[in-house]
Amino acid sequence: MFEFVKAGGWLMLPILLCSVVAMAIIVERFWSLQRSRISPENLVAQVWQWAKAGVLDARHIQALRVGSPLGRVLAAGLVNLHHDREVMKEGIEEVGRHVVHDLERYLNTLGTIASISPLLGLLGTVIGMIKVFGAITTQGVGDPSVLAGGIAEALITTAAGLSVAIPTLMFYRYFRGKVNLLVVTMEQEALKMVEVLHGERERGEEGASP
Fold first, then answer.
1. For residues 72 and 164, what is the distance between their CA atoms, to the nearest angstrom?
2. Is 209 a domain residue?
3. Per-residue pLDDT averaged across 6-19, rounded?
4. Residue 11 dihedral angles phi and psi, to the nearest 5°
5. What is the pTM of this model?
6. Rounded mean pLDDT of 36-54?
7. Number of domains composing the chain
8. 47 falls within a domain
9. The pLDDT of residue 46
10. Is residue 87 part of a domain?
């Protein structure tokens, strides 16, 4: 492995660094973007049970806020429960933008690595070919071993850059799609909570009116 890296020249170092960073991001995003961590099931039903039981107080809302990203979104609506529907939705949308930003953490870095890795490989190819033509100019083409180093460097860096870029791009697209799906799910859950709780409050106010 060391000989392979050494034959590729100094540009193998940034390519290897890109691969390490990409792997770390991929592992971290797989852990952080689990559905059970982002949007736990039956969370809206739990909120509904608290509301029916009359225990939907500041302590429960805070517990909801720190429990999950969906909980943060729902809590933003619950603190405005006694305002009209539009105010609740505005609070949810504002917090939702921050939650989406957190879900997309490191994805720009992953996309950048997918873009620059093949360019680093191409740069290595160019440098390797420059060495080949330099050797031809000074020593001719009689000794193939003189040209082998430059050709190897050109091919190895290209292969290494593509080997990093291809899987990184695949995971970048995968995580983008997963984030979009999670965002849609959270939007649906938040709207469901608004309609249920706000509708229930309005029915309660109508029943209390003379």
1. 36
2. no
3. 82
4. -70, -15
5. 0.81
6. 86
7. 1
8. yes
9. 87
10. yes
Please indicate, yes or no, if residue 210 is contained in any of the structural domains.
Answer: no
Residue type, 186: M
CA distance to 40, 176, 195, per residue, from 182 (Å): 11, 10, 20
pLDDT above 70 (res 168):
yes
pLDDT above 70 coverage of the chain, percent: 82
Six-digit token pair at 42? Answer: 């039956």
176 Cβ contact partners less than 8 Å away, ≥ 6 residues apart: 107
**Mean residue pLDDT across the chain:** 83
Instruction: Tell me if 118 sits within 8 A of 11, measured CB to CB.
Output: no
Residue with the bigger pLDDT between 201 and 163: it is 163
Domain that holds residue 134: 2-204
